[in-house]
Amino acid sequence: MTTATREPRTAAGAITRLAAILTARGINPATEPSAAPEPVTALESADARIPPRYRHALADHPRTTAWVTEIARTGTTGPGGAPGIASGPSLLIAGPTGTGKTHQAYGAIRSLLAAGVRLRWEATTASDLYAAQRPQHGANPEQQLGRLTRSPLLLLDDLGATKQSAWTEELTYRLVNHRYNHMLPTLVTTNLPVAELRDAVGDRVASRLAEMTERVILTGHDRRRRTAAS
Ligand SMILES: Nc1ncnc2c1ncn2[C@@H]1O[C@H](COP(=O)(O)OP(=O)(O)OP(=O)(O)O)[C@@H](O)[C@H]1O
Ligand SMILES: [Mg+2]
C-alpha cells in the first residue's frame, strides 16, 4: 500500500516547486532573476532532521493517512498563508517489534510537510527523554522538557519500553498532561498491547492517551528480519 505524496525528490523537483511558489506569489521566475531565493521547502529541511532510516518513510496505513488528512484539514493559516498546525487528535501507533511504528510516525510527519503544512515538530524516544532529564552539568532539563511539551507536533517514540519508576511516570505525566490539556497533536508509538499501557505508564497517562489518541494497530512479522522465523 502506498500513500500519494507530492514532493520533490530531486533538485529538478525542488526547482519546479520553487517556480510554482514564485508564480503563486505573482513573481515570474523567468523575469525576476534578482528575486531572493526561497528557503528550501519544509520537507527538504525536515529531511535533514529525520533519521536516515526513516527519511523516505511513507505513511501507508489508512488510519495514519486519515489522521494526516484530518490534521491538515483542521489546521490554522500559518506564515505566508500556508496551512499551519493547530489543536487536533493524536495518534497511538502500537504493535510488536519491527512492525513499522516509527516508520508510520515519521511517514505521517513527512506527509504533513509534503502537503505544505508549516509545522514545528520535535521527536524523541521515551528513553532519550528520560536520559536528558537526568541532572547533568550544563544542561537545562526543564527547558528541554518545555520544548517537547509545547511543540505543535511531537513524536514520542517507544513509550513504555523503559522500566518505569515514579520519576519516569511523573515526567511522562507532565508531558502528556500538557499536550492533553492543550489538545496538541502527538504521535505516540509503543511496543505494548494497548491493554498493558496502564501498567507500564500509570493510570493517569493511560487514561489521557485513551481519550486523546486515535489508534493504529500494526500486526505482522518483524520487518527487520528477512523471514518471520529468522
Ligand atoms: N510500510 C513500510 N514499508 C517499507 N518499509 C517499512 C515499512 N514499515 C517499516 N519498514 C521498515 O521496517 C523496519 C522496521 O520498522 P520500524 O523501525 O518502524 O519498526 P518499529 O515497529 O518502530 O520497531 P520497534 O518496535 O523495534 O521500535 C525499518 O527498516 C523500516 O524502514
Ligand atoms: Mg520504533
TrEMBL record:
InterPro entries: IstB_ATP-bd, P-loop_NTPase. One of its GO terms (biological process) is DNA replication. Residues 91-206 form the IstB-like ATP-binding domain. One of its GO terms (molecular function) is ATP binding. This is DNA replication protein DnaC.
